[in-house]
Design a protein that fits this description.
The chain is 44% helix and 12% strand. It has 293 residues and is of the alpha+beta class. The longest helix is centred in the last third of the chain and has 16 residues.
């Protein structure tokens, strides 16, 4: 069983996260290449979650700046520029946080969703089974009937305009995004800040997505996503993957065993004294089999 030092792990992440000044992302095309290389990244770094972020790849390993003119905030303009452009997938996906996904990877997330292929009707089955809230249903039906809507119009159509419904509306948006049912596709000059996301239904915006995901089993989808995750972070515990993807303990255990059994990941002893079911990408140790110390 190979051993891994914290120094080696951090050095690997500095490369895959593009933290070194010479490797920083400087253009929107480089941002796309970064997302495609990693498969999926967070837009901002998320406290307590180990995953590359576009912010850190641009601005370095530092907190997100409060100042609006910070150079790192060029990422905001890139994100808005490509909303709806189908160059990448942007939504509050992993743990309900802003996530960028490379288009070839989106079908693997979709294969794990509860979309059944008939986006005009299958939400009703989820609602009847108690797996879709009434507020999320109202928001989804507004988009289904009216087409893409910015947030102010969407709240009106969903009848969630009172101050007391603010949290309910935001929660419904996140619920629908994590379920790959809706996503932002543009920005409208609406509201007090003259800035509001325009939302649409995922299957309407990506009409081929269900077919692309149709041949992907849930087991294969988890293995593919977990493999990309390990390639990005270098090494992780099963519980880290479980928290990120919100899989069950059993689902995560099976994925961990599969990756190790197939040689797509290496089992590790405790890393930096932290115990757990650690797996590492073989890339950490080089093609020549150098396991390091």
């Amino acid at each position: 069983m190979p051993r891994l030092t914290l120094a080696r792990l951090n050095a690997y992440r500095a490369q895959t996260y593009r933290l070194k000044p010479a490797r920083r992302v400087k253009t929107i095309d480089e941002a796309l290449a970064f997302v495609e290389a990693r498969g999926f990244v967070y837009f901002w770094p998320i406290k307590g979650v180990e995953l590359p972020s576009l912010w850190a790849a641009v601005a370095g390993d530092r907190p997100v700046a409060d100042e609006h003119d910070d150079p790192g905030h060029i990422t905001w303009g890139w994100k808005d520029q490509w909303l709806g452009a189908r160059r990448w997938y942007y939504a509050k996906l992993l743990r309900g946080k802003a996530t960028l996904v490379a288009l070839p990877v989106v079908p693997y997330f979709y294969a794990l969703s509860e979309n059944f292929g008939d986006w005009r009707a299958d939400y009703l089955e989820l609602f009847a089974a108690g797996r879709l809230t009434a507020d999320a249903r109202a928001v989804y039906e507004a988009l289904l009937e009216k087409g893409p809507l910015h947030t102010l119009a969407l709240r009106k159509e969903a009848r969630l305009t009172s101050k007391g419904s603010n949290a309910r509306f935001e929660k419904a948006l996140v619920e629908l995004q994590t379920g790959l049912r809706i996503l932002p596709v543009g920005v409208a000059q609406a509201g007090a800040w003259r800035y509001a996301f325009i939302y649409d239904i995922v299957d309407r915006h990506f009409p081929d997505l269900a077919a692309q995901a149709g041949s992907i089993t849930r087991v294969d989808a988890r293995a593919h996503l977990a493999g990309l995750y390990l390639d990005s972070v270098g090494a992780a515990r099963a519980q880290d993957a479980q928290r990120l993807f919100r899989w069950t303990v059993e689902e995560t255990r099976r994925v961990w065993e599969r990756l190790a059994d197939e040689g797509r990941a290496l089992r590790l002893e405790a890393v930096a004294g932290v115990p757990g079911e650690w797996l590492a990408t073989p890339r950490l140790f080089g093609a020549g089999g150098d396991h390091g110390q």
